[in-house]
Amino acid sequence: MQTTSTTSASHDKGLQDLDQVVIRFAGDSGDGMQLTGDQFTRTTALMGNDIATFPDFPAEIRAPAGTLPGVSAFQLRFSSFDIHTPGDAPDVLVAMNPAALKVHLPELRKDGVLLLNTASFSALDLKKAKYEKDPRTDGTLSGWRVIEVDLEQRTLEALATSKLDNRGKERCKNMYALGILYWMFHRDIAPTEKAIAQKFAKKPELVEANLMAMKAGYAYAETTEIFQTAYRVPPAQMKPGTYRNIMGNQSLCLGVVAAGQKAGLQLFLGSYPITPASDILHQLSTYKHHGVVTFQAEDEIAAVCSAIGASYSGSLGITSTSGPGMALKAEAIGLAVMAELPLVILNVQRAGPSTGMPTKTQQADLLQAMYGRNGECPVAVIAASTPADAFEVGYEAVRLAVKYMVPVVVLSDGYIANGSEPWLLPDPDRLPAIPVAFAPEGQPGTKFLPYARNPETLARQWAKPGTKGLVHRIGGIEKQDVTGNICYDADNHQHMIDTRAQKVANIARDIPPMQTIGPRTGDVLVLGWGSTRGAITAATLRLQQEGHEISCACLRYLNPLPNDLEALLRGFKKVVLPEMNKGQLAMILRSKYLIDVQSYSQVNGQPFKSHDIHAYLQKTLASLGSTGSAKETRR
Amino acid sequence: MTATPALSKKDYKTDQEVRWCPGCGDYSILNAVQGAFSKLGKQLHETVIVSGIGCSSRFPYYMETFGFHTIHGRAPAIATGVKTSNPALDVWVVTGDGDAMSIGGNHFIHAMRRNVGLKILMFNNRIYGLTKGQFSPTSEQGKVTKSSPLGTVDYPFSPIALSLGAGGTFIARGIDVFGPHLEDTICKASAHTGTALVEIYQNCNIFNDGAYKGFTDKEVREERILYLEHGKPLLFGANKDKGIRFDANFQPQLVTGADLGKAYVWDETAANVAPAMALATMNEAEFPVPVGVFRRREKPTFESGIQAQITAAKAKKKESLRDLLFAGEIWDVK
Q1: Confidence class of residue A56 from pLDDT cuts 50, 70 and 90?
Q2: Given this model, what pLDDT does residue A61 score?
Q3: Which residues are CB-contacts of A608 (< 8 A; sequence separation ≥ 6)?
Q4: Yes or no: is domain A244-334+342-423 CATH 3.40.50.970?
Q5: At A240, is the secondary structure helix, strand, or coil?
Q6: Do B66 and A472 touch (CB under 8 A)?
Q7: To the nearest whole angstrom, how far is the Cα of B212 from the nearest Cα of chain A?
Q8: Domain A516-623 belongs to what topology?
């Protein structure tokens, strides 16, 4: 929260301009922190700031109230310039109870603002939060700007005239806090008024109470002396166009729906609920008016199998899942490889192994996506790197699947899935075409050849059951090329193994060259894939400003890799690859190119902080003798 | 509509050499299916046969229709995707007792529960054939096989009872050696709109030869087989001199002589599953073996429900791709 200009006269109290702020809301799972964060985000997006969000919540729907495992948080960062991450340390922490304070205070920037709800600081509350003494009185809070408010008492008073019972009134305390924050950060309350009216349209008393609480919070901040200054973050300079704030799972859904329409295909989603991918099933279920069929299957295997059946019959089969579900689908994905059918597998990765930490993020399913099947079983693998980027990646997955008659795995992760950012909406008319040509009716007396191939792509024809003259048999058993008849011939098997691999390899001729931030040669290339992009970009830009010869690039295509990747890697003295796994892509690149890619691994369920990447890269640069020009920068 | 040329059994044969063991019951089932299909008035290209893994699952290669030989146990799930995305197709599943009752048990029960318009032909030979002779979930207890040298400890279950429990709407049984009856049963299954199961007792002459000999041999079958006929009493025997009635607890009882008139009048469309369940679980040694239709109840199919929701949603809300993308709170940056 660095100040760029000082007091403005437009406010009763002081008004300061800032170029960015990081706020974290933390409370019990039942305290409505996600809703509060979401409201602040929408409002801020509408006010023209760039914004990035990071919801961080427990897997338990409602862990015992007031306990450490029950703490749910929502971090957002908004700015007047282009940002790449939801920020590292928050400038403002809203802690709704001692447990939230305990979990999140250590990350609050020194000198940062702590808005602390003092309503539940009884001995029992402190015990539940594992505080031996009251942190308000033992010096724990020194070094931060502490604002203590009894949010429950304040909210109850504000809602004296409401018809809700006391418990219902207390539940509005998050809106009271939101009102305070809206005043502090000079936000417009109108978007939230509208959103709350819509959300509780059938319960007018809830609308009234929530809005009363919010306005009371706003007024409280405005009138009491505790709050001396409000802050303003001017709109960001963003590329002209129409924007919408979007979460990763949402934009992934829109990407496949848009692609389905462009291709003229009915979408069929076979899915089984799994965190953090379930929202894809939820959202696509609401697109029936776009002809989207969703099938909540009995298990992960049936989910992918139904999608394969749908693709076989001429729809575009999609399945959405996370790591454990991916494991269950492996055999069926092999069938789709063998049957050479289009299939899109959306894997929203989470922290593994096994059940792991379902609500936490990780990118450790790369090798599973690449190799996690029996036999030589190549599929295309592409990765989304930000919530908005997921739209393009979902779209591209459909294009590749139908063009190459091959399964395409899309890797997203929990950080992208639930995070949000402003999305520059694409012109639907200018999205790339996705031509689909089903095999035409067969002529009498001719036999349909299911494995005859397009000489350029090596894709076979998509033959829709119900089409006259095309009856044929396919399956998971090795078959003769062209005819599709069962075939155990040694040379044919070698040929088919090579052909299926070549078909996927051919995709490399169909993808754009690598883009870099910075020159294509230098001391260090920071390479990333997926959601590490934001933190890598932020760290690299800072190091560039500090005078280092450093560039970064983010891989969308993981299989096949872009043709120009090797040359790019060889243009740098060192390639550093931050990954939220134990170095999976680094291993692939080292083995493929014999280049000494340096893995920077973090597998703690949390996204990288750009600060940590910066520090790591500084050491790498120092080892190469690069000291930079040592000029300080503001970001 | 122009009349489509009637197809013969021969039209359904493929150019692929049939590779089941000589003497396998699958040959007579193939014959019965080809016979039934030639009477259904469908065109070759309107039919899809989906199979899993096992001897029975080689079936699609021998039928001149669309065929998809998939993976072990998953045929009902794949077929559900086929039928749901294109309800106009005539979709059949060919499976076995290992494929459908063991590894694919979950998909099987959920297909039954949803009432997807699939016709499932389950070849039950009470053994694993393709893996060379291990016991299956329908093998009788105590069976000595390669994987149970001292006899099995497992209790078998009845696929018919399982299907009744899963809410199946068409459940029938045929036997490989009763060709015309099987063909007729397959035609009835085809006429049903929802999920139809035909359990087909099939002899594996290599690994479980004579499994059904006790009631299918020519000398005994008249006395041992109970043909379920809709609207007719449950009578059996060469002279129809034995019958089945149910006591107050729906336990089956044999009736003969003067009591023959008390034989239960079979109603395959009954709402109550108890009579069908009683027949499905009758002790094979003590009672005759029922074949024919256990249950036939019309109920809206899964795919029709899904398509109806889509049709209604499309009628109610027209939204361009642009409107879909440019939805919610949007703002312009100049």
Answers
A1: confident
A2: 74
A3: A532, A535, A536, A578, A580, A602
A4: yes
A5: coil
A6: yes
A7: 31
A8: Rossmann fold (3.40.50)
